[in-house]
Amino acid sequence: MSQHHQDVQKITVQTLKTMKAAGQPIASLTAYDAAFARVLDAAGCDFILVGDSLGMVVQGQATTIPVTVDDIIYHTRLVARGTQRALLMADMPFMSYSSATDCLRNAARLMKEGGAEIVKLEWGELQLDMVYRLTECGIPVCAHLGLTPQAILKMGSYRVQGREQATAQKMIEDARALEEAGADVLLLECVPMELAKEITQHAKVPVIGIGAGPDVDGQILVLYDVLDIAPGKRTRFSRNYIEHTGSIHKAVAQYVADVRERRFPTPEYAFT
Ligand code: KIV
Fold it and tell me: Tens digits of per-residue pLDDT, 29-47?
């Protein structure tokens, strides 16, 4: 089995920015181990996220809150072994970036011990400073806005964010501030499609959506939703790709092709 291809064109954050500028949709999924990472990488996923969703879909927890930095490092290391081309993004888990010292130390661990090439953190007022500090250290950052599952105990339920004018305006301002602080990628979860479109049009950095409609620069889904093996009821914005394809390889390839050709998401997978 070949472990290394010298002609692989490695994706970087700069590649994602070039894709945005060229209007070329970015395709992404989550993965938590080398076997699935290999499938996603071969199918052409531009980046792979080791999300803290692993707490729910791999560990069987009720929320993402119990996930630790060590958990993410372990799974990122596995995914790194199966990845050659895709950019490798790792989530910073709950409370691992609540002070500048913790944020920098934990981001460095995700990179040095896990092999992460970009870290993702969920939005909150404190995070502007964190994004700025990570950027100053040369660490690529993705800022996750809209529905932020790490705040589930405060929010009470998983629901669409930014439907009211004030919250929509605030999200537009937050996105702009995060970009100015140095965020390389913005990720919008469960946001009305018109709001996502507006944020995307104003952003110079790529905007990736999950439940944010078609008018963003790229899409991400949780792999286990795509394969219909996530516990509980599937979210409205995710699509079961296994049912019509019948194989993991074909399901992932179909998803990537649909994102590239802007066939996914259709309005039934988006929010107004
Ligand atoms: O943890 C995760 O899988 C995520 C995606 C939902 C974007 O953050």
Answer: 999 999 999 999 999 999 9
Q: What end-to-end distance do the CA atoms of the chain give, in Å? A: 47
Name the strand (E) or helix (H) holding 146: strand 141-146
Domain around 216: 3-269
What's the 159 CA to ligand 1 centre distance in angstroms?
A: 15
| C-alpha distance from residue 130 to each of 96, 101, 115, 241, 254 (Å) | 11, 10, 20, 36, 37
78: helix, strand or coil: helix
How many domains does the chain divide into?
A: 1
Is the pTM higher than 0.85? The answer reads yes
Closest-CA residue, ligand 1 atom 8, reads 51
Query: Could you tell me the CATH number of the domain that includes residue 192?
Result: 3.20.20.60
Pocket of ligand 1 (CB under 6 A): 30, 49, 51-53, 91, 144, 187, 189, 210, 220, 222
How many CA atoms are closer than 13 Å to the CA of 161, on its beta-carbon side?
A: 24
- pLDDT digit string (tens) for 208-227? 999 999 999 999 999 999 99
**Atom 1 (ligand 1) nearest CA:** 51
